[in-house]
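Example S7 (structure tokens).
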């Protein structure tokens, strides 16, 4: 695909339109925006992204319920809870994500933060010293690491996808966009520095896919990891240093049904 400068100009304008603070309140990214500490942002951002399917209003409400069950202080709750405290999570449910899953997530977070200062390290396992991270490898290794605790619930594996499953890994790619992208618009956090915006893969949900196909940014019939790679490769032609900024334009156009 050659660079279509008319398309680039149009999408750049749409990025500017949607990548604004008024995007935050109605999107799951509003959940981590309730916090100022890095660890709380990472934890609530990860949970919000993993739970991000269905109506956005419902997602936000369920995330707020979960945070309330953690006494409004997720990192402190995770690191300092007693077995008795964990009873507050019993009965939680959002779609197929339930209390069995969140209890394992809490166990993983406590294990990880006992050894590392940031959740970014979980995506750098085996690539700690490389200059350019292979994101496909990072996502596959992350899933292995996430389920490295003994006696993890097998049912929980379905909530963490990976390229090895041929998934687009939409939710985790969205979370990585939130943590890694840097600009002055105030939507994405840009609090991670070892992963680079240029290496990210665009989240490929139904809205993004539909609009991307209209613009010829996706040609593959099946929606899988290769589709996400194709989309991102074409977006890199428009901006090699920050291809996933176009997630704002494609998602916004899809949700608002402008086309």
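Recovered sequence:
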């Amino acid at each position: 695909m050659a660079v279509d400068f008319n398309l680039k100009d149009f999408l750049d304008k749409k990025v500017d339109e949607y990548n604004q603070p008024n995007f935050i309140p109605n999107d799951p990214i509003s959940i981590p925006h309730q916090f100022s500490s890095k660890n709380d942002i990472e934890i609530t951002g990860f949970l919000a992204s993993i739970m991000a399917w269905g109506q956005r209003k419902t997602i936000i409400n369920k995330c707020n319920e979960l945070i309330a069950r953690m006494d409004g202080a997720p990192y402190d709750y995770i690191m300092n809870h007693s077995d008795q405290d964990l009873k507050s999570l019993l009965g939680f449910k959002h779609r197929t994500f339930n209390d069995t899953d969140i209890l394992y997530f809490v166990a993983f977070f406590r294990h990880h933060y006992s050894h590392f200062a940031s959740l970014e390290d979980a995506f750098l396992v085996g690539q700690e010293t490389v200059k350019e991270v292979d994101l496909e490898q990072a996502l596959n290794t992350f899933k292995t690491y996430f389920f490295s605790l003994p006696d993890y619930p097998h049912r929980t594996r379905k909530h963490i996808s990976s390229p090895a499953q041929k998934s687009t890994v939409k939710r985790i790619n969205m979370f990585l966009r939130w943590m890694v992208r840097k600009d002055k618009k105030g939507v994405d956090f840009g609090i991670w520095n070892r992963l680079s915006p240029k290496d990210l893969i665009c989240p490929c949900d139904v809205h993004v896919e539909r609009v991307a196909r209209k613009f010829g940014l996706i040609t593959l019939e099946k929606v899988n990891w290769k589709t996400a790679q194709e989309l991102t490769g074409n977006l890199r032609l428009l901006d090699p240093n920050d291809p996933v900024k176009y997630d704002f334009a494609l998602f916004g156009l899809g949700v608002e049904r402008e086309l």
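Notes on this example. The two ends are 22 Å apart (CA to CA).
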